[in-house]
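Could you please review the protein record set out just below?
***
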Amino acid sequence: MKYFKDLYTSHKYFFNSVLSIFILLVLILNLFDLQFSGSKTSDRLAPVWLFITAGGGVYGIAVSFLIFAFYVLFQTKKNHLNKRTVLFFLIIVFLVQLINAGSTYFIFKGSYNKMRPSQHFITGTEDPDKGEILFYEKLSKDKKKFLREKTLSEPERFLDIYPPLLSDWVNESENSFPSGHSQSSFFIAVIFAFAISCLVKKNKIYLSVIPLLWALLVSVSRVIIGVHYNIDVIAGAGMGISTALILISIKRFNRIFIVDEKQLS
């Protein structure tokens, strides 16, 4: 218990930032009606939100991880950290992220049969098959086919939806809960923020908030473009944050970033 208390005391700014960003996410989602607000063709920010949300997808997370890895390896050389230990840490982060993503898509989403807001919108009902096989029991390829046929058979219903986003709606065939984008982005962001808070000078520690704000935007975008409900995003963010905090609380890992202040000057 004393160890974790000391860890919090020595990294108070980091832990408080993570908690503050999570609370801010919950407040934004609950105080503002964001669902579908960035889905209209007339909305000039629709392309922006679509770009932001891609940051939490497979390619976006891959790019984020590479940026994180290059930053840590650069600091490894600059601050004379143990390169082998740092590489081991990066491999563990990568593997944990794979486990996170796999468990979300193959376990959690499969356990909670909950349609996405976009799927409700396209089908026009919670039970699109009217008593036959429920939508969420279909195979992924069959869901995509069903959604695509629906958009093609009633094009007038979707004239106001930003076309690239409508294409995403059709391809987002998984269940809604929890948000994998939110989980992945916050997992990477929290670990990145921890590394920054340890490796920069004290007067630049505010830079550690940048990856957390990125994760916040990615998470909010999931509701704005209509592919998740508030609870999906909050749960996903909470899972990502929890996993990251557990990982960096392991002494072997968090100690590799603790460097003497003189090395930072």
